[in-house]
Amino acid sequence: KQEVTQIPAALSVPEGENLVLNCSFTDSAIYNLQWFRQDPGKGLTSLLLIQSSQREQTSGRLNASLDKSSGRSTLYIAASQPGDSATYLCAVPKSGNTPLVFGKGTRLSVIA
Amino acid sequence: DAGVIQSPRHEVTEMGQEVTLRCKPISGHDYLFWYRQTMMRGLELLIYFNNNVPIDDSGMPEDRFSAKMPNASFSTLKIQPSEPRDSAVYFCASSGQATQDTEAFFGQGTRLTVV
């Protein structure tokens, strides 16, 4: 059974700091990995998707890496801003379109 | 496309009442997923459909929960009778054919409160 763990559960940083969010999964036979952002009271917004054959993906100030063999992914946020404050979730399907299994997220607060 | 559309956004109901949540997936998507989010358990899959056919409903907590997808553009999740412990945010998501770059897209959710 696939289990996804995210550490830390919460993180508070001053504006401008670079930060790393961690995600680990127990079954490395994944198809891809997605990082989502969730603002309070809102739905999930897809940030990045890394295919199983890729090592990383970048979008603006966000960079996500994937190490399948060790069952880990990281989301790097450069030059954090107060607008980055949200909960960040990672999720993996076991294969194809089997449903995503989610971690419980990291709640990020960026203090101005 | 307007994305995945869920209704209502908020629902407050009394214990014992029937509740129906609605979802319109993104046009052309073959997969539809229903999730429930609580503080304690995070996001949990309830059921998912492929081409309108239920594939896995093992996450449906009890017989009080049922889901249908009568056509490619509409799905419902029904709770009858509702109980206070059903209070949560219910999300619907959809995705296209399975490839490595297939993303899942989520609706804004329905916040259900059962009093």
Major pleated sheet of chain B: 7 strands, mixed
Helix content of chain B: under 10%
Give the ordered list of helices and strands of chain A: EEEEEEEEEEE
Secondary-structure content class of chain A? mainly beta
- Enumerate the spans of chain B where pLDDT stays under 50 for 5 or more consecutive residues: none
Measured between the Cα atoms of the first and last residue of chain B, the distance is: 36 Å
Number of DSSP helical runs of chain A: 0
Biggest protein-protein contact in the assembly: A-B, 25 and 26 residues
Question: Ends of chain A: how far apart?
Answer: 41 Å
The rough form of chain A would be described as: globular
Q: Mind describing the biggest β-sheet of chain A?
A: 6 strands, mixed
Strand and helix order of chain B: EEEEEEEEEEE
Radius of gyration of chain A: 13 Å
Number of DSSP strands of chain B?
A: 11
Approximate strand percentage of chain A: over 45%
Q: Radius of gyration of chain B in whole Å, from Cα?
A: 14 Å
What is the approximate shape of chain B? globular
Helix content of chain A: under 10%
Structure characterization notes:
The complex is a heterodimer of chains A (112) and B (115). Chain A is mainly β. Chain A has strands at residues 4-7, 10-14, 19-25, 32-38, 44-51, 56-59, 62-67, 72-77, 86-92, 101-102, 106-111. Chain A has no helices and eleven strands. In chain A, the strands form two sheets. In chain A, strands 2, 4, 5, 9, 10 and 11 form a six-stranded mixed β-sheet that branches. Chain A has a five-stranded antiparallel β-sheet with strand order 1-3-8-7-6, with no helix packed on it. In chain A, a hairpin with a 4-residue loop joins β7 and β8 (72-77). The model of chain A has no long low-confidence stretch (mean pLDDT 93). In chain B, the strands form two sheets. In chain B, strands 2, 4, 5, 6, 9, 10 and 11 form a seven-stranded mixed β-sheet that branches. Chain B has 115 residues and is mostly beta strands. The mean pLDDT of chain B is 93. Chain B has strands spanning 5-7, 10-13, 19-24, 31-38, 42-50, 53-56, 65-71, 74-79, 88-95, 105-106, 110-114. Chain B contains no helices and eleven strands. Classes of the chains: A mainly beta (112), B mainly beta (115). At the A-B interface, β4, β5 and β10 of A face β5, β9 and β10 of B.
